[in-house]
Structures are given as C-alpha cells and as structure tokens.
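hiii so um. not sure if this is the right channel but i have a protein structure encoded as tokens and i wanna go backwards to a sequence. like what aa goes where. can anyone help
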C-alpha cells in the first residue's frame, strides 16, 4: 500500500457499488425522495435526503483571508549538494528525497478571483520529512510590503474590498502605501514585470524571511531561501493580464494541472544565501528587515537541491483547500530569526487553521506528518486519532508517557536579543538602509529601459483609477515615486494627468 501523503484518505469506492449514506448504509434511490402519497410532503424519515441537503450546505470551509485563490501539486525535493557544513536538517542531507506539497496563490483576491490580477503570489511548501513536517511559507518575491506584523491586518484591509461599497478601492491601496514608505521596494517589484507571472511555473519562490541554519556541531548561520524556476522567468503585460482575467480566470491553476497531467513536470532549484552570524550587525542593510534583500554580490547563492512537482491532487478540497501551511512547522537544523513579520506569522498561521479547519487540522491526511507522533494534545472537534488507552495524558506522570529529550529536542533557533527590556520601535536601520534604497537599485541597475517604461505604464494604469479630485493623495503618490527616482515620479505624474484629461480614470467609491 502506498505511504505517499497524497494517497492517504482516499476511499476505495468500487465502480457500480451501491450508493450508500455517509454511514455506509445502501440507499433506496439516487434521484427520488420519499413523499406521503404521490403528491404529499416529503418525510422526515428520508434521512438520506436530509443528509444530502445538510452536507451540501456545509461543503465550504471559510476561505483563507489572504491567499484565498490558489492551487497546488505534490512533488519531491531532492538534496543534490552537500550542505552538511551549515545544516543538519535531515531533508537537506545530500541524496535525501522528501515528498512534498506546494500551493501557489494570489494574495488579495477571493476564492473565485482571476489568477492574473497584479499581486504577489504565495509560494507555500510542505515537506513531509522523517523528523516532522517542515513548511516554508513564502512568496514569489524576496521581500514584503511591511516589516512589522502589527501592520498586517491594516495592510490587507487596504487591499481588499471596502466594507461600505463592497468594492476594491485603489485610493485606499495608495493611501496605505504612501503613508507606509517601507512598502516602496515591494510595490516597485509588484508594479514591474514580475508582478504578474506568465504562469506559476514561470516564477521564482523565496522564503523571504531570514532563517537560521544550524549544523551538527550547533554552529549557526543566517540564511535566505531562493527557489529559481527551471522553466525560465516569464511575465504577462498588464494588458494581456487584464484580457485573460476575463477569458481565463483560472489560467494559472489550469496551466499547472495540465502541465503535470502531460508529464511536463515543473522544477525549481533551491539556493541559499548564507551569512555568518557575526556579520549581521555590521551588514549594510538590516538582515532582519523583510522589506530588504541581501545583495547577491555580498552573499552569493549556494545550491542545495531541486524540487519537482509531479503529481496533481486527486481532490482539490481535501488536499489543497484544507492544506494548512505554517512557518511554525520547523525541523531540526533550521531556526527562526528576529524578523518581526516572521515572528508574527508563527502565531497567525496555526491560528487561522484552527479557525478555518478546526483545532485537529493536523490530523487531516494532507497535513499529517509521516513521522511518528507522541503528543499530549487531545479531543476537540473532528478528532479521530488517539493515543493508546494506557498512555499517560499529562506530563509529568508516573507512567511511561512521552518525555521531552533535551538532547533530541530542537531549539527552533536561538539568537542574541540585545537586552531584555521591552521596546516598541521600528526595525533598526543599518548604514545604507532607507525605505527607497533597494527600490532605486532595482529601478536604476536591474531593469532595462523597456522594463522601466512598462513599470511607469503599470503604475500609471493603477493610480489612474483614483478620482482626480483626490489631489492630496495623488501628490503623495508622485512624491513616493520621485523618491525612488525623479524620472519615475515625473513619468507617473504625466501619465496619470494624461489619463485624467482624457477622462479615462474610473471612479471608485
Ligand atoms: P543582482 O544583480 O545580483 O541581482 C538582481 C536580482 O534582480 C536578480 O535576482 C534578478 O533575478 C532580479 N530581477 C531581475 N529583473 C527583475 C525584475 N523585473 N523584478 C524583480 N527582480 C528582478 O543584485 P543584488 O542582489 O544586489 O540586488 C539588486 C536588486 O535586485 C535588489 O535591490 C532587489 O530590488 C532586486 N532583487 C534582489 C534579490 C536578492 O535576493 N538579492 C532577489 C530579487 C531581486 P534573475 O537573476 O532571475 O534575473
């Protein structure tokens, strides 16, 4: 029998088997409910009718708040290089192959929204390792809009629908962005070509946060994860994406599914940037600021292995909708860092899964580890696994129950907290840190002329949906882009004013 995580939970339904109720009782008919007399009312003892209607009413689980629209596939990660000098994680030892699941998504749109809206893409990975599940829950960008989890609900509110009108509102988005200048780098990235990937196969993935690698001797390094696509980077222009949003709203889901069905398995090579612990304080950018990258000229990428997606889900709801990724799931040899967004997510992700799916979400086959479990958690809705009757239910106990072994336990990452008094302040800037510095580098040194033109065009189209009477907001938008590069600020101003003169903006309430 297969032990692959993708095979767990499938019912062995035989062709032409008699239809049963959910309790396994054969039913009398698939199409006709029972009535009292030929034209009489339906009967309450027709519990099969009632079960069908009642179950149908409960077919959905609440959709994710961000990252609602997505899909994914199963695959395998193979470590092809020897990186044992930096991590003792079992899955990252040369030659080890680990079954895995990937889910890609847009962020702000709802479950039925088009795949081609401009948005970062979620890049969530679950590795079913021999030492517990390891989740790397990243995006297709190496950075994020904000660097403190306390701003996350406000940021997402600004991107989603306005409560009063039920409409998405570009003024709200730009109001938040321009009042939060740390968003500049990510918004530049988002408005550029990589803001709308051609397909999920044609984008890179990033762990985005800084993490720790810990080797067998306990030596630690800071690391950044990069998954480089082997399909080549490709993108859609804003106009192509707008058209496809109407004609092919599920384009990216379909592309992934069809590629795998046709045996054209997409793959990504994993690289890490590695920073010795002692270099973090003196690095020119704060290495724990999620709005910044580490320059690859300072910290070149080092290859670890390859992830290949080779198996479609058999059931979207059971295996993708109910898949629960959380940065909390970390394994020996990998640790957290003082990134304030990462630390906030460690709380938020398991919390949404407890609400969205239920407190026993880890027992659902797609989320269950393949390694042995010896936990003291018990009961709650939908529990179906339990310890042996004679097993202790608390710790300490005088019975032979599970006991934490400090020699085998993982510390999840230790670091110098620089004091023990409580602070409430922004992430400390390093020598070259400004909110614009890396956006300016991206604009001036990475993009070519054509990409710069497309960037200004994309920003203009987006800002152009703000009512021209909102002059104070529009001035803030021009200043936001002038701070990246005066030429960009000017081009956006000219573009937006031109749209307004031609009456091409769309009013948003
Ligand atoms: P490098 O020249 O070594 O790297 C430039 C990076 O930019 C490459 O990873 C490249 O990806 C990526 N890139 C190319 N075109 C685009 C685009 N249209 N949108 C977004 N990224 C693109 O320089 P540095 O490492 O010093 O970084 C310079 C700037 O590049 C940073 O300020 C940041 O904005 C951006 N960047 C940096 C990354 C990092 O981790 N250091 C990662 C991605 C972007 P590719 O090689 O696939 O073309």
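sure thing!! here u go:
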């Amino acid at each position: 029998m297969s032990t692959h995580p993708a095979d767990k939970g499938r019912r062995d339904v035989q062709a032409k088997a008699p239809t049963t109720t959910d309790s396994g009782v054969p039913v009398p008919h698939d199409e006709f409910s029972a009535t009292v007399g030929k034209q009489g009312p339906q009967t309450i003892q027709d519990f099969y009718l009632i079960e069908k209607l009642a179950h149908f009413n409960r077919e959905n689980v609440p959709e994710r708040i961000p990252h609602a629209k997505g899909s994914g596939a199963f695959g395998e990660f193979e470590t092809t290089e020897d990186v044992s000098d930096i991590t003792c994680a079992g899955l990252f030892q040369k030659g080890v192959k680990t079954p895995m699941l990937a889910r890609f998504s847009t962020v702000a749109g709802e479950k039925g929204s088009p795949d081609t809206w401009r948005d970062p893409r979620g890049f969530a990975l679950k590795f079913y390792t021999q030492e517990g599940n390891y989740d790397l829950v990243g995006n297709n960008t190496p950075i994020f809009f904000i660097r403190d989890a306390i701003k996350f609900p406000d940021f997402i509110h600004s991107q989603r629908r306005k409560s009063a009108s039920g409409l998405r509102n570009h003024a709200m988005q730009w109001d938040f962005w321009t009042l939060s200048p740390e968003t500049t780098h990510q918004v530049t990235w988002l408005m550029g070509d990589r803001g709308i990937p051609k397909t999920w196969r044609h984008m890179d993935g990033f762990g985005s946060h800084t993490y720790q690698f810990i080797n067998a001797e306990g030596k630690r390094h800071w690391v950044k994860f990069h998954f480089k696509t082997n399909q080549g980077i490709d993108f859609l222009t804003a106009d192509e994406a707008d058209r496809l949003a109407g004609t092919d709203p599920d384009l990216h889901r379909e592309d992934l599914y069809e590629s795998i069905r046709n045996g054209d398995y997409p793959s990504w090579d994993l690289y890490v940037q590695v920073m010795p612990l002692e270099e973090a304080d003196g690095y020119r950018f704060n290495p724990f600021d999620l709005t910044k990258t580490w320059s690859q000229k300072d910290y070149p990428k080092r290859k670890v292995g390859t992830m290949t997606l080779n198996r479609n889900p058999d059931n979207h709801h059971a295996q993708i909708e109910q898949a629960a990724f959380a940065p909390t799931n970390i394994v020996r040899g990998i640790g957290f860092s003082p990134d304030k967004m990462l630390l906030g997510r460690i709380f938020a992700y398991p919390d949404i899964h407890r609400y969205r799916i239920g407190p026993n979400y880890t027992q659902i086959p797609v989320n269950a580890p393949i390694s042995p479990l010896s936990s003291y958690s018990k009961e709650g809705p939908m529990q179906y696994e339990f310890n042996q009757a004679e097993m202790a239910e608390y710790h300490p106990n005088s019975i032979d129950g599970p006991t934490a072994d400090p020699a085998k336990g993982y510390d999840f990452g230790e670091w110098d907290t620089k004091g023990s008094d409580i602070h409430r302040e922004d992430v400390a800037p390093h020598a070259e840190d400004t909110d614009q510095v890396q956006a300016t580098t991206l604009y001036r040194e990475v993009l070519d002329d054509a990409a710069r033109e497309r960037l200004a065009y994309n920003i203009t189209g987006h800002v152009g949906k703000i009512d021209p009477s909102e002059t104070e907001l529009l001035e803030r938008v021009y200043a936001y882009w002038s701070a990246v590069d005066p030429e960009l600020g000017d081009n956006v101003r000219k573009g937006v004013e031109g749209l307004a003169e031609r009456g091409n903006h769309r009013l948003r309430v």
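oh and Residues 142, 189, 192-194, 233, 293-297, 438, 441-442, 446-447, 451 surround NDP (CB under 6 Å).
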